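Fill-in record for DegT/DnrJ/EryC1/StrS family aminotransferase.
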Amino acid sequence: MSDFIPPAKPIIGAEERAAVDRVMQTGMIAQGPEVAAFEREFAAAMVDGRESVAVNSGTSGLHLGLLAAGIGPGDEVIVPAFTFAATGNSVALTGATPVFVDIELDTYCVDPAAVEAAITPRTKAIMPVHLYGHAANMTALGEIAEKHGLMVFEDAAQAHGARWQGQRVGTFGTFAMFSLYPTKNMTSGEGGMVSVADPEVARRLRLLRNQGMEVQYQNELVGFNNRMTDIHAAIGRVQLTKVAGWTSLRQDNAAVLTAGLRGVTTPVVAAGAEHVYHQYTVRLPEAIAPRRAELLARLKDEFGVGTGVYYPVPTNELPSFNVAADLPNTKVAAASVFSLPVHPSLSEGDLERIIAAVNTVVEEA
């Protein structure tokens, strides 16, 4: 259909293009003053002033954050199995072992009880994911971490501006990673931002992203080339001024969808949580979940409504890990969820068409 409603739609406008042009004219394209400014501005706007370090991707942010916090071979880090593979990948890339646990089926975030049950003498940290833009239960996870002497790392890739009990995500753990990929709630074109509680961890993170050096040719660590460019930072700085408004639109769109949809389980917002709706994810009833692919194809082909399935295979079951685990809620979610458009570019007519299409397809299934 010519008026297809995409499941996600990055917003890149004249201000972002002007920012890129401004940087290109300076000739300072690699990590430079734009990156430093973006780090300061992100810290002030998103994580209550906590030191923030820009990198070239969200995955790099997780990987380097783990290394900077001292995670390595022989360690275990507990992660949810229902998330993008980058969460587990980042742990494995340090030489540590990701321990996959189940989620709460209402919020799709990691189940604190499952976390506590998975702790062993090798466990060093818990890494919850604020999935779809809903914060994990940081109260319960913080209590578990304190009880067992564990660190907490936040995968906040999808949760720019989300809150738990009034506190911003990205301010709970030793570090937190925000993705700046094009489909996220704000983007730098590509990139990631890591907020860090401990100045020494932040310093190691800065070393690791830049070949292990702060002073040129004085390499203190074996590091990586995971720097953000000034071009990407310039885009991110503009987007940072807009993300709060976009978040409000996402929340408004989600409220309309929740009020109108029938026959599916709409997103739950836990008491005290502020959901920023990176994805608006619904769940099909068990009876028709096996026909998900057919129903989503109908939404696209007959009604012009784009959807996404995040995530159809639990991370532990991917060929890259292939770890057997009894994770009933993860299995249900992976088999039955799909995400509908909720992005700020939706019109009132778009929302009406999405609701009518889903209700029709589900009722006729």
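KEY FINDING: The CA atoms of residues 265 and 338 lie 10 Å apart.
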